[in-house]
Design a protein that fits this description.
The complex is a heterodimer of chains A (311) and B (607).
Chain A lengths: L15 H21 L3 E2 L1 H4 L1 E8 L5 H10 L6 E4 L5 E6 L7 H15 L3 E9 L1 H29 L2 H25 L2 E2 L1 H30 L8 H33 L1 H24 L1 H7 L4 H4 L2 H7 L3
Parallel strand pairs in A: 1-6
Antiparallel strand pairs in A: 2-4, 2-5, 3-4
Chain B lengths: L5 H18 L6 E9 L9 H12 L6 E5 L2 E5 L3 H15 L3 E9 L3 H5 L6 E2 L1 H4 L1 E8 L1 H22 L4 E6 L3 E6 L2 H14 L4 E7 L2 E7 L2 H26 L5 E5 L3 E7 L4 H9 L3 E6 L4 H8 L7 E7 L5 E7 L4 E2 L3 E8 L5 E7 L1 H13 L5 E7 L2 E6 L11 E5 L4 H12 L7 E9 L1 H55 L2 E2 L1 H30 L4 H33 L3 H32 L10
Parallel strand pairs in B: 5-23
Antiparallel strand pairs in B: 1-3, 1-4, 2-3, 6-12, 6-22, 7-8, 8-10, 9-10, 11-12, 13-16, 13-19, 14-15, 17-18, 18-21, 19-20
Helix pairs in contact in B: 1-13, 6-7, 6-8, 13-14, 13-16, 14-15, 14-16, 15-16
Classes of the chains: A alpha+beta (311), B alpha+beta (607).
Keywords (chain B): Cell inner membrane, Cell membrane, Membrane, Protein transport, Translocation, Transmembrane, Transmembrane helix, Transport
Pfam families (chain B): Sec_GG (PF07549), SecD-TM1 (PF13721), SecD_1st (PF21760), SecD_SecF_C (PF02355), SecDF_P1_head (PF22599)
Subunit structure (chain B): Forms a complex with SecF. Part of the essential Sec protein translocation apparatus which comprises SecA, SecYEG and auxiliary proteins SecDF-YajC and YidC.
Chain lengths: 311, 607
């Protein structure tokens, strides 16, 4: 059985302008949302106190908000966590008051009106930790990019390395843009998810690049132009691309559906990352490769170039 | 074509068997147990405790399932919680307060597996419930304290060697000693250099002033900071022991941070109270000059002195003027017990180490008739516990603090001193409490999402690639087995992001098999014979698999190095998963395909 076998090469590269325009538009849009709305950073980054509460029966968010506001701890966020009975409460850091006192006071206040409340989780994080996480996260991101560039430049050629990383960043920025647009919480697991996407998406690009390199060396494709060679590589791997993404997406969707609140952000980042990963590896990385002026000579050892003289 | 030599099959079978052995412990449940550990730094739990516990249990007619010594504690396993509780009461009563008997859960892994070091995975706090603290050690305070101590050492040494000196002052990062002339400078240098071998001692003689400057070399500062963290970790261990927590985690993280995780503890307030107590004892001289005291009370504290309050027996707080120099600190105390003095008043009996005893001996000899103050410094604020008049020289290192305190207070003070002092104060920068029900829920949700995802992929693969799909699914299963075995074997703590990484890694691992299967199909389409298609398919796909996995691994390693907490938990599993998936997708699946198709005439492949 074969669902995705394509007989004739699809001229992906001739759509190059269109796809570049689309990705540029989504990219710009993502940047716009990032700047305009900003990310809704989780407690790990901002510091503060988060409480997760569970009520026996449906909770009344307005009532809770009212009661917490009455304690005058500054701007508190009250939101539901997927269900009507699970509630998340976020409070800013308060000087001279530790979170044990803080959470106890809040819990006592809430228990006064509803005794069916249970404390499931309390997190307190100082602001200094958040700053450090931010720099560490950024360092990790840069290091991942540099590592990938170095490896690809060594195994392939600099054009491949740069194209892959640009395509990669394109995915990352779009995920961030989505998180900014919908104001989903950006926490540590989401960051882990995004960094995983980085590895995942480059994996995708590498599979296509590998095929392009192989095609350049194939005698049967010697007469073809560079765009045709790339088209052939993408077409030949398209079936695998769809299936692999399908299976990974299966896993990630399973996490999104059954993983509960704790894995939600992670699964969400990956879901978006995979969708754009498939797109970017095929329709961003390859046109970029062409734009950077990849030729057959780039991929063939100098000795052979001499023999062929003119292509 | 497509035959593996026998040793390759054997290797694969062996690796699967070993992986299975190390994965099995995760499927045994847990049974109630007791953990017996020492409550005091001076008492160590040893092998002998196993026999002792057994005798105690025999006396009350309880037979434990298993009892053994591990690390610093003895663990005893029971059939059910009833016997566990009965045993706890009996053991605690028999052993007394010197030992902590904590309730625990221990895996039911059979003994023969444990002997092979096959243990279940360690579950992170987000999967078990409990409290997590991230503490930051105040490094500046650690350095200040060391300088203060050095200044004291210098003073004592010079006094001992009868070298006359002026002011000994602690500047920002050095200690300065003022001396009268060239000769005393030389002598002081010689004397000080002898006792402070690791430090830099410089003579400064200019414009008629003679100074000795003592500084810490960079290596010494680094050592100092490391020591401070280590001492704090030891102290935290002692304090956590007081809580009676089974299997606490106390680890250094980064340069000056310490992670404390207490599984099963829900009462943060109590945990924090015990962790946060930074009580140290200081012994300083009292300035009994009424004129100076009056001046100080009027807000004019003379340089080198400090005004504190002394709590008298009748509950009054009386101002007291102390010299700033610390003669002796809690570091020199190795034992503290609550008890009663000869007037039957509550007291704390201190045992000093040899240095402390020597210092105290000199101090009491030189200051007969004067008052010394015992100060308990908690959270940066000092309180004078007692300030007795020195009646005569006290040798032997046995010191008693008595006076204005109740029995409970004496107990508290003793406990704090016993638990050891911190080298530097710490702040809580992060704190988490995870309810036990939430932990259980996290496990089941993580497990289910992995299971459903795996099933979906398996069904699709078998349907789409038929025999090759079945092989891919089996290889994926083997991959999961290898991954779980390695995680258990390496003792990686499994967290919720770790479970997410297992799921993601499985989703990505199938990529290698898809690459291979697609390649085989392509080879067939291009007219290769079935055997050649298998060979070329695997060979061609391998280069791609290698490249794509190495790039992913680079990303994973960067996460491992620069990530912390949740990210690191994720990265560990991710990196190990990439390695196992390469092995299982390439070798294990090839071995199966070879067994099915190799070494015989095949007309068509079911792919």
């Amino acid at each position: 059985m074969e669902f995705f076998h394509v007989k004739r090469d699809i001229p992906f590269m001739s759509y190059g302008k269109l796809t570049t325009a689309i990705s540029l538009a989504t990219f710009v849009l993502a940047v716009f949302f990032l700047v305009a709305k900003g990310l809704n950073f989780g407690i790990e980054f901002t510091g503060g106190t988060v409480m997760e509460l569970r009520y026996q029966k449906a909770a009344n968010l307005n009532e809770i908000r009212h009661e917490v506001d009455a304690l005058k701890y500054g701007e508190a966020q009250v939101q539901s966590m997927g269900t009507t009975t699970d509630v998340m409460l976020r409070l800013p850091n308060i000087k001279d008051k530790n979170s044990a006192q803080l959470s106890n006071e809040v819990l006592t206040a809430l228990q006064k009106s509803r005794s069916d409340v249970e404390l499931r989780k309390v997190e307190f994080i100082g602001p200094s930790v958040g700053d450090e996480l931010f720099t560490h996260g950024l360092t990790a991101l840069i290091l991942v990019c540099l590592g990938i560039i170095a490896y690809l430049a060594m195994r392939f050629e600099w054009r491949f390395a740069v194209s892959a990383v640009i395509a990669n960043m394109h995915d990352v920025v779009i995920i961030l843009g989505c998180f900014a647009l919908f104001q989903w919480e950006f926490n540590l697991t989401v960051l882990a998810g995004i960094l995983a996407v980085l590895g995942y998406s480059v994996n995708e690009s590498v599979v296509v690049f590998d095929r392009i390199r192989e095609n350049f060396r194939q005698p049967a494709l010697r007469g073809k132009t560079v765009p045709e060679v790339i088209d052939n590589a993408i077409t030949a791997t398209i079936s695998r691309t769809i299936i692999t993404h399908g299976s990974t997406e299966c896993m990630v969707l399973s996490m999104l559906l059954f993983g509960g609140a704790a894995l939600h952000g992670f699964a969400m980042a990956l879901t978006i990352g995979i969708v754009f990963g498939i797109y970017s590896s095929v329709l961003v990385a390859s046109p970029l490769l062409l734009m950077f002026g990849i030729t057959r000579d780039n991929m063939i050892k100098p000795v052979k170039v001499k023999e062929e003289a003119v292509v | 074509m497509n035959r593996y030599p026998l040793w390759k099959y054997l290797l694969i079978v062996a690796s699967i068997l070993i992986a299975a052995i190390y994965t099995i412990p995760n499927f045994y449940g847990e049974s109630p147990a007791l953990q017996i550990s020492s409550a005091r730094a001076t008492i160590k739990v040893s092998d002998a405790m196993v026999a002792r516990a057994d005798t105690i249990l025999k006396a009350i007619g309880v037979t434990p399932v298993d009892s053994y010594f591990e690390g610093t504690s003895v663990k005893v396993r029971f059939k059910d919680t009833d016997t566990q509780l009965k045993a706890k009461d009996a053991i605690q009563a028999a052993l007394g307060d010197d030992y902590i008997v904590a309730l625990n859960l221990i895996s039911d892994t059979p003994v023969w597996l444990t002997k092979l070091h096959a243990k279940p995975m360690v579950l992170g706090l987000d999967l078990r419930g409990g409290v997590h603290f991230l503490l930051e050690v105040d490094m500046k305070a650690a350095v200040d304290k060391a300088l203060e101590k050095t200044a004291g050492d210098v003073r004592r040494e010079l006094k001992d060697k009868k070298i006359r000196y002026g002011k000994v002052s602690r500047e920002r990062d050095r200690v300065e000693v003022q001396l009268r002339d060239e000769a005393t400078l030389k002598a002081a240098n010689f004397a000080v250099r002898k006792i402070l071998g690791n430090l830099k001692v410089q003579d400064v003689a200019e414009n008629g002033t003679y100074k000795l400057v003592i500084t810490y070399p960079a290596a010494e500062i680094t050592k100092l900071k490391n020591d401070a963290v280590l001492q704090n970790i030891t102290t935290l261990h002692n304090r956590v022991n007081e809580l009676g927590v089974a299997e606490p985690v106390i680890q250094q993280q980064g340069e000056g941070r310490i992670v404390v995780q207490l599984p099963g503890v829900q009462d943060t307030a109590k945990a924090k109270d015990i962790l946060g107590r930074t009580a140290t004892l200081e012994v300083r001289m009292v300035a009994d000059d009424q004129a100076l005291l009056t001046e100080a009370i009027n807000g004019n504290v003379p340089a080198g002195y400090e005004l504190m309050s002394e709590r008298r027996a009748d509950g009054r707080n009386v101002p007291i003027l102390l010299k700033k120099e610390v003669e002796l600190t809690g570091e020199n105390i190795n034992d503290a017990q609550a008890g009663f003095d000869d007037k039957n008043e509550p007291a704390v009996h201190l045992g000093l180490d040899s240095t402390g005893a020597a210092i105290f001996k000199v101090l009491t000899r030189d200051n007969v008739g004067k008052r010394v103050a015992m100060i308990l410094v908690e959270k940066g604020k000092g309180e004078v516990v007692t300030a007795p008049v020195v009646r005569g020289e006290i040798g032997g290192g046995r010191v008693q603090i008595s006076g204005s305190m109740g029995v409970a207070e004496a107990n508290d003070t003793a406990l704090l001193l016993r638990a050891g002092s911190l080298a530097a104060p710490m702040n809580i920068v992060e704190e988490r409490t995870i309810g036990p029900s939430l932990g259980k829920e996290n496990i089941s949700k993580g497990f289910n999402s992995t299971l459903y995802g795996f099933l979906a992929i398996a069904v699709f693969m078998m349907f789409y690639y038929r025999v090759f799909g079945v092989v891919s699914t089996l290889a994926l299963g083997a991959n999961l087995l290898f991954l779980l075995a390695l995680l258990s074997l390496l003792g990686v703590t499994l967290t919720l992001p770790g479970i997410a990484a297992i799921a993601l890694t499985l989703g990505m691992a199938i990529d290698a098999n898809v690459l291979i299967n697609e390649r085989v199909r392509e080879e067939l389409r291009n007219g290769a014979t079935p055997q050649l298609a298998i060979k070329n398919g695997y060979d061609h796909a391998f280069a791609t698999i290698l490249d794509s996995n190495i790039t992913t691994l680079i990303a994973g390693l960067a996460l491992l190095i620069f990530g912390s907490g949740a990210i690191r938990g994720f990265a560990w599993v991710h990196c190990i998963g990439i390695l196992t998936s390469m092995y299982s997708a390439v070798f294990v699946s090839r071995a199966m395909i070879n067994l099915i198709y190799g070494n015989r005439r095949v007309n068509t492949l079911a792919v």
